[in-house]
Known about the structure:
heterodimer, A: alpha+beta, Nucleotidyltransferase, domain 5, Actin, Chain A, domain 4, 6-stranded mixed sheet, 16 helices, 19 strands, globular, B: two-stranded antiparallel sheet, 9 helices, 2 strands, 42% helix, disordered N terminus, binds zinc ion
Amino acid sequence: MHQNVVVLDNGGGLIKAGLGGERDPSAIIPNCVYRPLASKKWVHPSPNEPMDLTSAAVRRPIDRGYLINPDLQREIWANLFSSLLRVNPAQSSLLLTEPLFTLPSIQRATDELVFEDFNFSSFYVAHSPSLAHLYEASQRTFKAQCSLVVDCGFSFTHAVPVFQNFPINYAAKRIDLGGKALTNYLKELVSYRSVNVMDETFLIDDVKEKLCFVSLDVARDLQIAKKQGNAFRCTYVLPDGVTHTKGFVKNPEEAQRYLALGDGDTLEEVQQKMDVDQMEVTNKLEDRKKIDLTKNEFDLTNERFLVPEMIFHPADLGMNQAGLAECIVRAVSSCHPHLQPVLYENIILTGGSTLFPRLSDRLEKELRPLVPDDYQVNITPQQDPILGVWRGGSLLASSPDFEAMRVTKAEYEELGSARCRRRFC
Amino acid sequence: MDDDVSNPMRRMSSRTRKVASKMTAALQSSDNRTQAALARLEALENDNAGLEMVEANDDDEASLDDDDQVYIQKKHSKGTKRKTRQAKALEARKAPRTFLELVHEANLDSLPPHVPSYLKAAVGPPSSTSRRHFCTVCGSAANYTCVRCGVRFCSSRCQNIHNDTRCLKFVA
Ligand SMILES: [Zn+2]
Ligand SMILES: [Zn+2]
């Protein structure tokens, strides 16, 4: 009998869920419940109804990438399966993503959720790096059987070598920084410098997604950012709760000006390019001051690149951890020497936090000097880094091998969690 | 009402916010600055950072509703005087443990050295320890340190802003 396979990429930030075999997930929702400012009730985010997330409090089942609150996850999944996917778990199989190094206690709690609370008929646990690799391998004539997957998501950043679809977990390296910390860091900066947005997780997420980018030359760009009306300055308009419940970028063209700056441009060249803009902007300066007084908006300049910068230099935040380029080098160096050149040649970027413009360019710039000269460095950002892992899961779920890989409810009942888990390693 | 429309931030952050006094104390001694730095890193993983900075002082007009207190109580045991012991026990049972608590319970240190684990996967310290500093006021490269609180600034202009409005304060 052919059964539905529910493919569930259970991220700390976003749930991506749908049926195996389809190209894209049918539901993408935040993995949280939230409580609007004026309400006492926690509610599920709904993709179909408008949400006023202004000053909403939030509860998440996942902490640092790992499931710590199965009760809350149960509520969120129950809503997902019944209202959004409209599937009957008892007649479905589940392919679930789980981060590497999930603690046994969390695995047990997850198995209980899957088999005892939801009664799935069978279950398979997949790791994001394998699925990202699988998807990329399906997309091109990808001769190598291995790749180095950089998964920079909501909770952390992993550099994981994947060999024949399995993560080499003894070589995996982690930076304790992801999109959540970056959003919180941006909140801090904006609150310290302009307006208090410490309660505005959802708003600042939007600011980060629309306005942050990676600098190719931080020292130069900090100099540029000091000038009035510089290429980085742009304005974000806060929601007023009346005409708009969401914030927005005031002038999207203004927000794109930085793209005119070339990698090698010196400060003088930049100055020349920007002179034209500067005139315009100076003229508008009076207007801007007036608007500022009402506090309906705030300006960003160097925050736009100082926030993603932390992925490359966590030490700047006071974290005693190496940045992304070194993280990759350490992961690759932990592998067999024969694998190393192939891994550098096949670096895949996945996860929502790889969406910052120019991240891949900057990574290559930092990585190149750290890699032996006769090795190629080849970085492939996933076309859709938020969905890439799910798509890999969808492929796996519809492959002929899948049936033999999963654990059935009967096996779980007979063998228990720990023994079933050995199948997924 | 008019006020609310013209000033969305009033609507957005109606909760009172105070400088956490523990933080202030911590910042004053350089030994404790490390502690404060760690606390700050921890805060970057918080979901409701603004909410959790609130100190529920009795003489202050409490701006949190009961629900908030229940939530915050999981992390801070403040502001719970009105709760019965029974209610507390119930919450303690229901409150999920943090991931770091779960890691601690898993006793990963006892694994044999060749077994990969969450702890061993951490990337480790950078090979070059040079930390860049950015001005907390404007974001530029910062060469000066406030002698009172250890925060960085870039120029006398930013130093003045720091001294006037921010020194020894964590949240604006
Ligand atoms: Zn400054
Ligand atoms: Zn100070």
